Amino acid sequence: MSDLLLYIQLRLEPGCMGPQGKDHIEAFCQKENAGPWQNQFATVCVVPRYDKTLPEWEYRVKNKLLSAEQASKFISMHATTKSELEDNIESYMAEEIDAYMDGKL
User: Fold this and answer.
1) How crowded is residue 89: how many other Cβ atoms within 10 Å of its Cβ?
2) Three-state SS across the chain?
3) What is the pTM of this model?
4) Rounded mean pLDDT of the chain?
């Protein structure tokens, strides 16, 4: 099972980039997806979250959508938790957003 890659789709709200976020979110997502966050078992695709009815996080293996419980089980096989993985990704994204917005404001 270790050869399976977990694909994580993270929907970022434009507001996380500040008051002018809607002007920058598309370009930021393109930049991030050109060199996505990844580790030995997971990779992240970042998309704007314009529709708040859609979940912030989605997990897929072999194009199959996983429930939160299935995602947690898959992640736990890699000596971490879903919460720790999400925290790690969120910290990385916060740093990336800060660096990106540094030259924009």
Assistant:
1) 19
2) CCCCCEEEEEEECHHHHCCCHHHCHHHHHHHHHHCCCECCCEEEEEEECCCCCCCCEEEEECCEEECHHHHHHHHHCCCCCHHHHHHHHHHHHHHHHHHHHHCCC
3) 0.91
4) 94
For the cut 50, the answer to whether the pLDDT of residue 1 exceeds it is no
**How is residue 70 written in tokens?**
């299935």
**C-alpha–C-alpha distance, residues 56 and 60, integer Å:** 14
Over residues 26-50, the mean pLDDT reads 96
Are the C-beta atoms of residues 79 and 68 closer than 8 Å to each other? no
> What is the per-residue pLDDT for 62?
94
Using alpha carbons only, how large is the chain's radius of gyration in Å? 14
